[in-house]
Design brief:
Length: 925
């Protein structure tokens, strides 16, 4: 639609869009999604409101379109921003072997930052047309930008057809619409008054407005056609008829050129049309200009034209006979091989006649396009091009190279987060190939996913690859396969097998000298035995991972920092924890990788809860859960970790209200690995469903002696303790105590989910359950010392209460009382309601046990402590002085004290005081 056409019925939309653009200019940016059917006027609205300073990018309906196509057009018009993005990609090329998934997030973040920066200080308006055709990489950048745009001077107006709610855009729409910087605008059909205004402005006063509205459906594009013709009909069919009529008025040569143009797409390059038609450029330009005057094309940038509307192009293309269409695609592909993007060329060869040569050429160009997409970090597009290449080679009957192509496809899909699809292609590659090296590569594609449905098949594929390469293969490859096998076994709960295989992998990796293989093996080993590897070795491997990782391999660096945090908690060096947390924060900020940020939030939530900063820990856990749902949805375990944190927090503070809604449902569908099995009865116990908890515990109890069960996760032991205590399982407690005997003490563990208490507390609880109170007392004293030194205030509360109980059981209420009082006071300060109740109950009990005095004797003791003489006390209590003397002698005898001074000290220790102006006493809490 040209600017000379009437523009009616959009006053409200114009006002809204102008207001949003004005707000962006003032520093409150916006993404405006303008939806509606084809021809409704979305582009005309954007043209009218944005003005000539806007930067435009268009998505195209072409399977060969390169990733980020609309953004490339935008960045080309913004030299500074485009140069910044180009430098980022060049920098990636300089870091061979970099973590490409991480690099993709960095690239998207950098591109978004460059666009935001380009909007300063004068503001910037970007228009993206037809984003219903946008590729996944373009939408990823749009999603990221939507999260940053509110605090900028950038406005992005994105138009899309909303009549076919399928494809990547419509999967992304809920997230886009949920961003605070997103506005939505839908253009509705014109009304009868709007149609009357249009006809009046167009000089078509003789056309019946009501009939025109009926025939056009209020669509401005159709209305234009109806107003210019007396033809009857309606909708797209009528428009196509009108297009045919208009084209029929052109000479045969012009019609042939329009047919070629329709094959090229909505954008028409006159030079390419001339090459395909084998006609001089001047003749082609003249003919295309005639099509512009006929309303079929419209001018675009120098040297090119555009179809007046996609429906116009579709109508011409649909009228081509299949044979003509295929021939034109072949000629177009040949013409574009030296000038177009590889994916575009591949798309044309794909739609040419399906000869073996055409299919082979389509596959070659699709593979080239996939390499380009990978360099642009567009993994979904890379997978799409590789799938196209695979299909072409199969249709051409080619078997050579299929296995390698399948491995490449699986790798692209894994990077795109499509784990199941990736594994299916990796397995198919392994089945096709007789090359052991390729079989090994296939087995190593999918890693670090604990999806229960994949784990058995991953184990089988890795075992087959190990058998294929044999024991004398390259030690690096064999070590990586063994590490993969150990990791899968650990995730499957097969601890014994995992430990043995991880040891073999580590020994082989050490002998090979390959650092990456060594780190793979270490990570597999630490999954099952986080503390068995000597501390010095873990610190060394952590430093090695950090040095090999960095921004290029952020996940490797993350492992290293986490290993060092675990080691620091183990020995109680909190300054090291702070240093490593700061390094992870810097890594998250540098890489912009959601997974690194998620780990940072998880660790900080855990440390905050460990210190008793519960409000901060809840907020960090909430942010981690939101990030998991938005960016890491392919891995459900990331969301489950936030639920697991809430369960631990509920136990630590003693409040079942900490458990979020839906936790039971999540546990019900969780994979049947040991930690999930233990969590189900524990959750029931925390929420007071004791019978359900007992039934769940009875069901899992026979499995506790299985080394694979208890060794699956370091968190299983401490999670079992509340169940053992609740159901007084002395037999299991004895077995677990013997199992832990002789292990060196440690300060804390499990920081990735929730920092645990120290090992002295664990062994103390087992001793207490077994009735070994004398043994439990020094263990709880050691636990309090550990927790105090590490700043674990909530666990200090727990262990003071536990130590107080043991002292009370040993008949030492006087030692137990201050512990209970301190625990109650600290629990109130921190907000631990369950432990306030437990400490207060213990305090009441030990006070009763420690105080043999009668009520009257306690009154007199309080008055003695208030420095009153016997006569004053007698007067205050309306007793005889002799009676008071008798009570004082009784107090001294019962308490084993020598004089009134000792009585006063005893009273102060017990909190017995005299209320001002009263004849009685009170106990201070």
């Amino acid at each position: 639609m040209t600017r000379s056409e009437p523009f009616v019925g959009r006053a409200g939309a114009v006002a809204d869009l102008r207001a949003w653009l004005a707000a962006a200019d003032g520093g409150s940016g916006a993404l405006v999604l303008v939806g509606g059917p084809a021809g409704i006027g979305k582009t005309r609205l954007a043209e009218t409101v944005t003005g000539p300073a806007a930067v435009w990018g268009r998505c195209v309906d072409d399977p060969g379109a390169p990733p980020l196509w609309p953004w490339r057009r935008v960045l080309r018009a913004l030299p500074a921003a485009g140069a910044e993005v180009d430098r980022a990609l060049a920098d990636l090329d300089d870091h061979a072997g970099a973590d490409l998934v991480a690099a993709r997030f960095r690239f998207v973040a950098l591109a978004a930052d460059a666009l935001v920066a380009a909007a300063e200080p004068a503001g910037l308006v970007v228009v993206l047309e037809d984003v219903h055709w946008a590729d996944e990489a373009s939408l990823r950048l749009l999603r990221h930008l939507a999260g940053e745009i509110r605090r900028s001077r950038l406005a992005v107006v994105a138009t899309y057809r909303d009549t076919d709610a399928a494809g990547p855009l419509f999967e992304a729409l809920p997230e886009l619409l949920g961003r605070p910087g997103t506005e939505s605008l839908r253009l509705e059909p014109l009304t009868e008054p709007d149609v009357r205004a249009y006809l009046a402005e167009a000089g078509r006063v003789g056309v019946d407005a009501r009939d025109a509205l009926r025939r056009s459906g209020g669509n401005p594009l159709y209305l234009k056609a109806v107003a210019r013709s007396s033809a009857t009909g309606g909708g797209e069919a009528e428009l196509r008829h009108l297009v045919r009529t208009t084209v029929a008025g052109l000479d045969a040569g012009a019609r042939e050129l329009l047919a070629i143009a329709s094959v090229l797409g909505e954008e028409v390059d006159a030079h390419v049309v001339a090459e395909v038609a084998a006609r001089p450029d001047g003749d082609v330009v003249t003919a295309l200009d005639r099509a512009v005057r006929a309303g079929v094309l419209r001018p675009a940038v120098a040297g090119s034209r555009r179809f007046a509307h996609a429906v116009v192009r579709d109508g011409i293309y649909a009228d081509l006979d299949q044979g003509v269409r295929e021939e034109l695609h072949a000629r177009t592909a040949a013409a574009l091989e030296h000038r177009a993007e590889p994916g575009v060329v591949a798309g044309h060869w794909l739609r040419a006649t399906a000869t073996p040569d055409a299919l082979a050429r389509a596959a070659d160009w699709a593979e080239t396009a996939a390499r380009d997409a990978t360099r642009s970090l567009a993994f979904t597009e890379a997978a799409r091009f590789l799938a196209l290449a695979l299909d072409c080679r199969r249709r051409a009957g080619t078997r050579d190279g299929l296995a390698a192509l399948l491995v490449d496809l699986a790798t692209a899909e894994y990077r795109a987060g499509r784990f199941a699809r990736s594994f299916g292609h990796a397995r198919e590659a392994a089945e096709l190939t007789s090359d052991p090296a390729l079989a090994a590569a296939a087995a190593l594609v999918v890693r670090d996913t604990a999806a229960p449905g994949l784990l058995p098949e991953m184990a089988a594929l890795t075992a087959a690859a190990l058998a294929a390469i044999g024991p004398d293969a390259d030690p690096v490859v064999r070590a990586k396969l063994l590490a993969q096998s150990a990791s899968v076994a650990a995730d499957s709960g097969k601890t014994g097998e995992a430990m043995k295989t991880a040891d073999e992998a580590l020994a082989l990796a050490e002998s090979s000298g390959d650092q990456e293989a060594r780190l793979d093996a270490v990570r597999a080993r630490l999954k099952t035995r986080p503390r068995e590897l000597p501390l010095a070795e873990r610190l060394r491997f952590g430093a090695l991972a950090v040095s090999l990782g960095g921004p290029a391999r952020p996940l490797v660096a993350l492992w290293g920092h986490k290993w060092r945090i675990d080691a620091a908690f183990e020995v109680g060096t909190i300054p090291v924890v702070e240093t490593e947390l700061a390094a992870i924060s810097e890594l998250a900020a540098t890489t912009r990788l959601p997974l690194v940020r998620w780990h940072e939030l998880r660790l900080r939530a855990s440390v905050a809860a460990y210190r008793g900063a519960f409000a901060e820990s809840r907020e960090l856990n909430r942010l981690a859960g939101e990030l998991a749902g938005a960016e890491l949805a392919e891995d459900r375990s990331t969301l489950a970790m936030s639920f697991a944190f809430s369960q631990q927090l509920a136990e630590v503070v003693g409040d079942p209200a900490e458990l979020p809604d839906g936790y039971d449902e999540l546990l019900a569908i969780a994979p049947p690995i040991p930690i999930s099995i233990v969590s189900r009865p524990l959750c029931a116990l925390v929420t007071g469903r004791r019978d359900e908890a007992r039934a769940g515990y009875d069901a899992l109890r026979p499995r506790l002696r299985d080394p694979d069960f208890l060794g699956h996760s370091p968190g299983i032991g401490p999670n079992l303790l509340p169940l053992l205590e609740a159901f007084e399982d002395l037999e299991t407690a004895e077995w677990l105590a013997n199992r832990m005997a002789g292990e060196p003490p440690f300060g804390s563990g499990g920081a990735g989910t929730f920092c645990s208490d120290c090992s002295s507390s664990w062994t103390g609880r087992l001793a207490a359950l077994l009735g070994r109170h004398t043994e439990a007392v020094p263990l709880f004293e050691a636990a309090i010392a550990w927790d105090t030194r590490l700043g674990a205030r909530p666990y200090v509360v727990h262990n003071r209460v536990r130590l107080g109980r043991e002292l009370a059981a040993l008949g030492e209420p006087a030692r137990a009382e201050p512990l209970a009082r301190q625990a109650a006071d600290e629990a109130r300060r921190l907000g631990m309601p369950g432990w306030v109740r437990d400490a207060t109950a213990l305090l009441d009990r030990v006070r009763t046990e420690a105080d043999p005095l009668t009520g009257r004797e306690r009154e007199i003791v309080a008055l003695v402590a208030g420095a009153l003489s016997n006569r004053q006390i007698a007067h205050r209590l309306v007793l005889s002085e002799r009676t008071v003397e008798s009570h004082v002698r009784s107090v001294l005898a019962k308490l084993g004290l020598a004089n009134r001074t000792e009585v006063t000290a005893w009273a102060h220790r017990r909190g017995l005081t005299v209320p001002a102006g009263a004849g009685s006493f009170r106990n201070s809490p």
